[in-house]
Amino acid sequence: MKTTIKNVRLAFPNLFEPKINEQGKAQFGAAFIFGTDHEARAVLEKAVDEVGTAKWGAKWPALKKQMAAGDNLLIHNGDAKANLEGYEGNLYINSYNVVRPTVVDRDTSPLVAADGKPYSGCYVNAILDVWAQDNQYGKKVNAQLQGVQFFKDGDAFAGGGQAADASDFDAITEGADASEFV
User: What is the mean pLDDT of residues 114-140?
Assistant: First the structure.
């Protein structure tokens, strides 16, 4: 079920180049963090209930309780990752895809990694496909990442890195000459 969440904080973005997961598959992904009273919570809870009901029908209410107890629903408590910046006191979801998600700016123009956004700590809108899993790996409700739109700047999370600006360097006007190194 195609679902859009808006103005959520981006963490661990892997949007331009795939990373290898535990099963050895290359995938793109990101985490999205939001407050307990954020509208994304209601949007995601509604999507979870709709896909759960569509998949399991009358069994859904009981299965939902079991899945919640096993932390197998889409929304997770950020306090479980309180050691990570931005998670404590919030909720989060993780979302992945083997296909590169669409990544756009506020005006919907395409973004590439060299643009420097979106980055870990900024705010984004995300398009997800919420789906019910029932296979050898268990019963869960997951989200497949389809797209990310840069929404606004935020304080970058530690470890996000930032490139130096050319103005940070001093011009070299004397000294080392290429011929000195031959």
Answer: 96
Contacts of 28 (CB under 8 A, 6+ apart): 14, 15, 16, 17, 18, 19, 96, 97, 98, 99, 100, 101, 145
Span 28-60, pLDDT tens digits:
999 999 999 999 999 999 999 999 999 999 999
Kindly give, in sequence order, each residue whose CB lies less than 8 Å from that of residue 109, ignoring residues fewer than 6 positions away. Answer: none
Rounded CA-CA distance 19/118 in Å is 17
Beta-carbon contacts of residue 130 (< 8 Å; ≥ 6 apart):
1, 3, 44, 47, 48, 50, 51, 74, 141, 142, 143
Q: Quick one: angle between helices 60-69 and 39-56, nearest 10? A: 130
- Measured in degrees and rounded to the nearest 5, phi and psi for residue 137 equal -90, 0
| Residue partners of 74: CB distance under 8 A and separation at least 6 | 44, 47, 48, 93, 130, 141, 142, 143
Q: How far from the centroid of its chain's Cα atoms is residue 155's Cα?
A: 16
Burial bucket for residue 31 (CB in 10 Å: 0-12, 13-18, 19+):
buried
